[in-house]
Amino acid sequence: MAVYNVPSGVSNILVDIEGTTTPITFVKDVLFPFIKDNIKKYLIEHWKENEFQEDVAQLRKQAEKDSHLHGFVPIPSHVSENDTEKVIQAVVENVQWQMSSDRKTTALKQLQGHMWRSAYATGQIKGEVYKDVVPAVQQWKNLGMKLYIYSSGSVEAQKLLFGYSIEGDLLKLFDGHFDTTVGHKVESESYKNIADRVGCPSENILFLTDVVREAHAAKKAGLHVALVVRPGNEALTDEDKSNFHLVTSFDQIHFPSQQ
């Protein structure tokens, strides 16, 4: 694929994670299975902690909102010590249902983030990044670019992935993080919100993603967009290929000072 020469005026770069900086397989084959395999053990070990009880409270509120959905799992209130086992099992089943339905609720992401934090800190998990990412990002930083992450995963989960990566602590390379609390990634308003937050016009931002619907939303909001084509990512149609610049590696992205 040809080099993508970024238009002059771009001073901020917004990047997706899954399928863009990090293999999709890392999320599907490492992060998610860790939750499913360890959820009950984690609940039992952390049950009495205030942070965990807040996680349960948020999951319970989400369950009340989901009561109209097929297969939803309610989470009963914890009244006495005798209820603990019943509530724990309900939380396990609720989390498994949300994950099997590919839900991306804030409550679920919050619990997952706390579980991953423990796993990263103990070395059970290390964040994966493509080999071309760090050299390119370091070069962009040297050019004076500001870099931000925007992912459906929580900000905490993002910081864990890059803070405990196979390349070491990469957090110093990024100027900020955004998750779905700023809006869903397929809605153009979310990208306008991000532009407001970073304090620059939409046309001064380049968004890198592998998801076509996100690309369209960002483009509608006035951002420049490049689709990142990585192994295992969803196949693109001819129309997709004609609508967006395509790159298979970050080193194909060149800024005016590099051209």
From TrEMBL:
Q: Where in the cell is it found?
A: Cytoplasm; Nucleus
Biological processes annotated in GO: L-methionine salvage from methylthioadenosine
Question: Got a GO cellular component term for this one?
Answer: cytoplasm
What cofactor is needed? Answer: Mg(2+)
Q: What is its EC number?
A: 3.1.3.77
Q: What is its main location?
A: cytoplasm
Q: How is the cofactor bound?
A: Binds 1 Mg(2+) ion per subunit.
Entry binding sites for substrate: 151-152, 185
Transmembrane residue ranges: none
Which keywords appear in this protein's UniProt record, sorted alphabetically? Amino-acid biosynthesis, Cytoplasm, Hydrolase, Magnesium, Metal-binding, Methionine biosynthesis, Nucleus
The record ties this protein, via InterPro entries, to: Enolase-ppase_E1, ENOPH1_eukaryotes, HAD-like_sf, HAD-SF_hydro_IA, HAD_sf
Q: In which pathway does it act?
A: Amino-acid biosynthesis; L-methionine biosynthesis via salvage pathway; L-methionine from S-methyl-5-thio-alpha-D-ribose 1-phosphate: step 4/6; Amino-acid biosynthesis; L-methionine biosynthesis via salvage pathway; L-methionine from S-methyl-5-thio-alpha-D-ribose 1-phosphate: step 3/6
User: Which HAMAP family does the UniProt record give?
Assistant: Salvage_MtnC (MF_01681), Salvage_MtnC_euk (MF_03117)
Q: Which PANTHER family match?
A: ENOLASE-PHOSPHATASE E1
Family statement: Belongs to the HAD-like hydrolase superfamily. MasA/MtnC family.
- Give the quaternary structure: Monomer.
What role does this protein play? Bifunctional enzyme that catalyzes the enolization of 2,3-diketo-5-methylthiopentyl-1-phosphate (DK-MTP-1-P) into the intermediate 2-hydroxy-3-keto-5-methylthiopentenyl-1-phosphate (HK-MTPenyl-1-P), which is then dephosphorylated to form the acireductone 1,2-dihydroxy-3-keto-5-methylthiopentene (DHK-MTPene).
Q: What is this protein called?
A: Enolase-phosphatase E1
Q: Which gene encodes it?
A: ENOPH1
